[in-house]
Recover the amino acids of this structure.
């Protein structure tokens, strides 16, 4: 059973993340998708606590078939891969992350531990060296852009799944105001 592993901060999860997840299920022949919400990432600060981001991820990815969503306590991907030792799995990343992959902690070790599949994105270099490439509907969205829109009081309905937008609005997430 092939597992596609999609990790991220998901602060918040958006439609680009969902397209990446759907592409992993549909284009990579994955039998299962494992979405890992990084609790305390070693490479960036987060706006929301891990449990809230996990709940948003469950709202974003919960309707996808054969998908498990859980918290990941590893600060770096390589540490997760050393501990979990996934069998018949592929690490799924977007082209933007692939462009920064060499800056990850121990990228060569990651490639030794697990095959990597990169979602093709216009304007990004084509991955080489045995990297699996797959196509998805490309959406130019960033979590930072979403947070900025929320802070400015602008709508985000076209950037995040409807259930995520409702939860963010209901709880006043990212706005600094209580829900």
């Amino acid at each position: 059973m092939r597992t596609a592993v999609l990790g991220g901060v998901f602060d918040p999860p958006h439609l680009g993340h969902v397209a990446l997840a759907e592409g992993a299920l549909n284009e990579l022949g994955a039998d299962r998708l494992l979405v890992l919400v990084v609790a305390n990432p070693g490479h960036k600060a987060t706006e929301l606590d891990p449990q809230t981001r996990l709940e948003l991820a469950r709202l974003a990815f919960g309707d996808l078939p054969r998908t498990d969503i859980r918290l990941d306590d590893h600060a770096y991907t390589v540490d997760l891969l050393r501990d979990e030792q996934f069998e018949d799995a592929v690490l799924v990343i977007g082209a933007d992350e692939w462009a920064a992959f060499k800056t990850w902690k121990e990228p060569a070790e990651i490639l030794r531990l697990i095959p990597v599949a990169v979602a093709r994105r216009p304007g990004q270099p084509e991955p080489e060296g045995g990297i699996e490439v797959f196509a998805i509907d490309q959406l130019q969205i960033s979590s930072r852009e979403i947070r900025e829109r929320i802070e400015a009081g602008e709508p985000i309905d076209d950037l995040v799944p409807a259930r995520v937008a409702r939860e963010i609005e209901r709880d006043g997430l990212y706005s600094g105001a209580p829900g």
Remarks:
- The chain has a mean pLDDT of 92.
- Residues 3-138 form a domain with the Rossmann fold fold (CATH 3.40.50.620).
- The chain has one domain: 3-138.
- The longest strand covers residues 32-38.
